# Entry
Amino acid sequence: MDEISDVMWIIIGNGGVVQCVEYYTPPLKSPIRRDVVISSMDEVMKFIKSLEKYPERKRTLEDLYKVSENVHTYYVIVHNEEERERILRELDRRGYLVGVDLTTDEIFKEIERLRGE
# Structure
């Protein structure tokens, strides 16, 4: 939760637009999908302020993070390969990146691997 603005800054600051977020909650076979279109930090800050103003929203999102063990994916639109590589490099450098272009099955396998650590 605390890292949302940092992740968004990396994505948006490097030219990306977040299209949706998916949360993986085994044993469900499909992720919980939240469609969003986030293209500016103003939108991110507005969202964060709404969590502060409405604590029940924040609790609900925190519960979703708990139930998904903080495993989620972002669908990001970029204009070119250079933007994509900058975003991936920075997310990886900060420790936010587990994989790229993984299938749902690969993500669930990664969850199992992380649980075993």
Remarks:
- Residues 9 and 97 are 15 Å apart (CA to CA).
- The chain has a mean pLDDT of 91.
- The longest helix spans residues 41-53.
- The first strand starts at residue 17 and ends at 23.
